[in-house]
Amino acid sequence: MTATLAGALAALGRPVLAFLAAVGRVALFAAQAVGHLFRPPFYWREFGQAVLQIGWFSLPVVGLTAIFTGGALALQIYAGGNRFGAEAVVPQIVAIGMARELGPVLGGLMVAARVASSIAAEIGTMKVTEQIDALTTLSTNPLKYLVVPRLLAATLTVPVLVGVGDSIGIMGGWLVGITRLDFNSATYLKNTMDFLEVWDVGSGLVKGAVFGFLVALMGCYHGMTSGRGAQGVGAATKSAVVAASVLILAANYVLTEVFFSA
Fold it and tell me: Measured at the alpha carbon of residue 118, what is the angle toward residues 214 and 31, in degrees to the nearest 5?
């Protein structure tokens, strides 16, 4: 009986210990990357390319996601509010829903799907082809050259994407409101502006910065630790997207609790 209980506890403890070890490795990797952020040299060319890759090239998918989400949100709120005569709250709820939650979360998830996979595949391929070893041989720190520019670029550009996505999402709700739900355009926009507060937008931008950091961190970490061969790179790409998506949702809850629990 004792041996059976010990075996059951061991079987339960192994995945827990493995999870804690993985968390520790990621935390150490993040600490090292952030530490290198404040020490020269800094590779501005890599940073510029990362800004384009993460920010500019992600704008179409974030914009399309936001406009359809805003439109669908307006329809759902109108349908729900119609049950108890509260259809007039559509502009206010669309604005706060996009600014606080849907804009940052969906924008972060879209960037995670596009960017985390790209970063992990790129760095993983460099590892497989021994380009990272070549950087070390040339006295170039791989963390500073490959990781730091991407972390900084994602942390700075994702909030901009979130801000643009918020505006496009609110516009999507406005378009549906005036074309499908018979709202007056001026009244819709006035209700939106009167109800939306600075911190509603600011909290979403802070979330965007955190989500951008997590996306780049997961892409870089899984790329740097990928296995050898095509199978290893594929596994690293998949793990990066899954880990970034889960961390975004978990961080969103934590940040919402911190910002709005009172």
Answer: 30
> For residue range 67-126, what is the model confidence (pLDDT) as tens digits?
999 999 999 888 887 777 777 788 888 999 999 999 999 999 999 999 998 999 999 888
Same domain assignment for residues 24 and 64: no
Contact 197, 92 (CB under 8 A): no
63 and 147, same domain (yes or no): yes
Buried b (16+ CB within 10 A) or exposed e, 45-64: ebbeebbebbbeebeebbbe
Predicted TM-score (pTM) of the model is 0.89
* Closest listed residue to residue 161, CA positions, set 211, 219, 215, 107: 107
Tell me: do 77 and 199 sit in the same domain.
yes
- Pair of tokens at residue 223: 């790329």
Domain range for 33 is 1-39
> Whose CA is closest to 90, among 180, 173, 171?
173
Whether 72 contacts 186, CB under 8 Å:
no
Q: Could you give the number of structural domains in the chain? A: 2
